[in-house]
Write a sequence for this structure.
């Protein structure tokens, strides 16, 4: 389905309303980078439940949604904070308690599944997975033989998310979106998903977005929201680096359900909007995250 | 120049030594020791190596520092190019990735690794982060360098992985050949206690750090230890290489991979530079 409305700019409330309980939701960005956090926060405010999140390697987006009780199935290749803050506490706790279904996947498997959806074919083959226990988590995979070479392969089925949530740099009102690399799976999500909801740092004119470079074309994009710092506390270069101190605050809070509740009340529920969220985090602090480009020394200081 | 080095610096140098000049090499995310090792190799013995960053997919960047997270623009600085996610994984699928660095909470004698869960898959005692791209990359990468910085714990090198995420030479379902995997599997395993190779698809201890005894290494190893008859101490790293490690990683992110106790291990170069001894 092509999205051809001339003006797709909506508010965050309406945009998050495009996600239904139980949807398969693709989360854009990865790890500490350009995750759709404004939408994640709004889904939590709206009390969304039973989501099935898919993606490659992710961090606070999945951990926060799981902590808020919004997720039933996680199908990602990794959820955590690398050597930075280690395992994702809320995700880990729910997985160990059995309240969350973990269908751990692999980056290339997810890519091939999205490609199958994009190509309009029922599956794509991969050469790994055999011999691993990851296969046991996925009864939907099938071992096949190549009809030409007789090689053993694993067929992974097409994956068309109900909705993809992506945070970008800039978009015009028609929905053309400008992103910079790394793009991770954002393009693949956009063409594989049924609906694509994009938040951006800034809504701009069509010529300005065209000049910067369109990465996601308007006809694939369902809705656009202007959400400055909409990836915070993950990074959205060149606008801002990631907020390492805030991430640390969340990871600490994620250690138990009580402090998860406190974090959610303080940063998600009580503010009630992204403008109030930015106030809560603090304008000075947000502005400082943009100072990474001043010098390598300042950059290093921000990440220390 | 400093006369001493610490274990984290030596492990990075040992990992760098497994890279051959001209190889296309990739590290996963959350792998600061591998990141440091690759940049070290590129700037010393492997100038023609094609360095692909683990989460930005940048080619041959010149970072001012190694950041605590791996998909940071710090690992794109002055890059020749930034690949797409798809381009890296397709490259590996068609056999164009020469070496991959891979770690695991558990590693068995065949180089199978577990980054998924401790306990059972269905009811994990500890849910680990997950395998990223390893489940497919370990099948097709031409060669792999495995590493762990937790050998001494006795929980890292195990008789059998609780859950098998990434494939080594032999899995319970068959050998790489039987599974149809074109990659040649793990060639090296570097730990904070020693260095293993895989002559017949099974880990064999080849080098040991000067402050580690064979008995203590054996006690920390959960599989039956094969030892190379020519076992020797690790050759000391070049002091200039260690200075480079410090310059590449001023935030010392690499040290996050080690326990506090291990980080106290220091070594001193002999005056002729041909050996290193432990500082007690």
């Amino acid at each position: 389905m092509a999205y051809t409305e001339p003006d797709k700019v909506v508010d965050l409330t309406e945009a998050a309303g495009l996600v239904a309980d139980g949807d398969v939701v693709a989360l854009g960005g990865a790890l500490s980078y350009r995750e759709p956090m404004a939408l994640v926060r709004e889904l939590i405010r709206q009390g969304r439940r039973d989501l099935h999140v898919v993606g490659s390697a992710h961090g606070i987006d999945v951990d926060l949604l799981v902590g808020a009780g919004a997720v039933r199935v996680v199908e990602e290749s990794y959820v955590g904070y690398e050597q930075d803050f280690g395992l994702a506490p809320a995700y880990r706790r729910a997985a160990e308690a059995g309240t969350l279904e973990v269908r751990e996947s692999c980056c290339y498997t997810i890519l091939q599944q999205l490609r199958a959806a994009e190509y309009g074919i029922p599956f794509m083959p991969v050469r790994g997975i055999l011999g691993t226990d990851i296969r046991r988590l996925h009864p939907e995979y099938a071992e096949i033989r190549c009809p030409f070479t007789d090689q053993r392969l694993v067929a992974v089925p097409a994956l068309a998310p109900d909705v993809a949530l992506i945070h970008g740099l800039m978009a015009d009102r028609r929905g053309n979106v400008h992103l910079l690399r790394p793009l991770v799976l954002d393009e693949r999500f956009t063409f594989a998903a049924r609906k694509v909801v994009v938040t951006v740092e800034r809504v701009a004119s069509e010529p300005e977005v065209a000049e910067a470079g369109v990465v996601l074309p308007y006809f694939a994009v369902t809705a656009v929201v202007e959400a400055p710092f909409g990836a915070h506390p993950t990074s959205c270069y060149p606008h801002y680096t990631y907020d390492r101190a805030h991430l640390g605050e969340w990871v600490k809070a994620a250690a138990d359900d009580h402090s998860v509740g406190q974090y959610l009340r303080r940063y998600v529920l009580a503010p009630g909007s992204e403008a109030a969220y930015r106030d809560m985090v603090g304008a000075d602090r947000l502005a400082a995250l943009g100072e990474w480009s001043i010098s390598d020394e300042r950059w290093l200081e921000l990440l220390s | 120049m400093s006369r001493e080095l610490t274990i984290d610096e030596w492990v990075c140098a040992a990992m760098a030594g497994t890279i051959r000049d001209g190889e296309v090499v990739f590290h996963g995310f959350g792998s600061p020791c591998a990141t440091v090792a690759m940049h070290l190799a590129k700037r010393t013995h492997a100038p023609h190596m094609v360095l692909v960053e683990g989460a930005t997919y940048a080619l041959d960047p010149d970072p001012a520092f190694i950041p605590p997270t791996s998909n940071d623009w710090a690992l794109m600085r002055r890059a020749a190019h930034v690949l797409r996610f798809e381009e890296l994984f397709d490259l590996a699928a068609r056999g164009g990735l020469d070496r991959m660095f891979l770690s695991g909470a558990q590693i068995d004698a065949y180089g199978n690794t577990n980054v998924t869960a401790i306990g059972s898959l269905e009811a994990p005692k500890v849910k680990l982060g997950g395998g990223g791209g390893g489940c497919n990359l370990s099948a097709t990468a031409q060669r792999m360098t495995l590493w762990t910085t937790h050998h001494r714990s006795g929980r890292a090198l195990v008789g059998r992985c609780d859950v098998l995420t990434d494939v080594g030479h032999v899995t319970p379902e068959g050998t790489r050949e039987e599974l149809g995997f074109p990659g040649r599997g793990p060639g090296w395993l570097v730990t904070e206690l020693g260095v293993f190779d895989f002559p017949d698809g099974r880990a064999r201890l080849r080098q040991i750090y000067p402050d580690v005894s064979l008995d203590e290494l054996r006690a920390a190893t959960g599989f039956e230890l094969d030892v190379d008859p020519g076992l020797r101490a690790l050759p000391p790293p070049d002091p200039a290489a260690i200075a480079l490690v410090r310059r590449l990683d001023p935030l010392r992110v690499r040290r996050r991979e080690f326990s506090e106790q291990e980080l106290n291990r220091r070594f001193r170069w002999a005056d002729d530079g041909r050996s290193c001894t432990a500082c007690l």
